[in-house]
Design a protein that fits this description.
Shape: elongated
Structural class: alpha+beta
Oligomer: single chain
Strand order of the largest sheet: 1-8-3-6
Helix content: 40-55%
Number of strands: 11
Number of helices: 8
Strand content: 15-25%
Distance between the termini: 49 Å
Radius of gyration: 19 Å
Amino acid sequence: MAHFMDMVQSSLFEGITPEERVTMLSCFGYYLGSYQKGEPIAMEGSYIRHFGVVLSGSVDMVKEDIWGNRTLLVRAKKDDVFGESFACGEDKLSSVGFYAYEETSVLFLSFDKVMHNCQNACTCHHKLTDNMVRVIAAKNRELMRKVEVVSKRTIREKVLTYLSLQAQNQQSRYVELPLGRLELAEYLCVDRSALTRELAKMQEEGIIDYDKNCFRIL
C-alpha cells in the first residue's frame, strides 16, 4: 500500500507523506476501479458520493443531449480528480457522464469523509481538506476557460481562443494538443468536418501550421 500511494502525484495529496496517505486511506476507506476504453464510470443522473483520482489512463466528462450529441467538457488525466463537484452537491446527482477514454484505473474516496474531520483526528486531514478546496477551485477555472472558448461565435474564433490558452499553458507558440480531431470538435461544440475545413483554411492563410496534434501559431 505504501508503494502504491507513493506513486500517486495528485495535487490532492500535496504536502502529505506516503505514510500519512496510507493512514488516511485506512481511516476513511477507499476502493479501486478498473475500466476499459469507452466504458462508463458514472452515467448522467447517477448518485455520486465518491470522487475519483485517476491512477492511470484518462477520464472524459461528457454532456449528451436528447439527440445524442456529445460535448466533451473536461478530460481528466493521470493524477487528476473528477466527480468532486457533484459529490459535494446537496442532491449528489451527476448532470454529466464520466467515461474511460482509454484503459483506466481509478482510486475512489468518500467526499464527505475527506471534507470532515475523522474520529482519529489525523494530523494531516486539515491539509487534505485544504488541498480539496484548491482542486475544486482549479476545476472551476478550467471550466471557465471552456466557457470562454465555446462562447465565441465562429469556429475560427473558438480555435484561436483554444490555441491561445494552450500556448499560454505550455508557454510556447508550438503546442501539442491533448485532443484528437473528434475530441477537439466535441470540446469546441462544432461539426468535425467543418472544423477540419476551417483548420485547412487557417493553414492556407498562414494563421497556423499543424501536423496532426502539433500546432504552431504563426
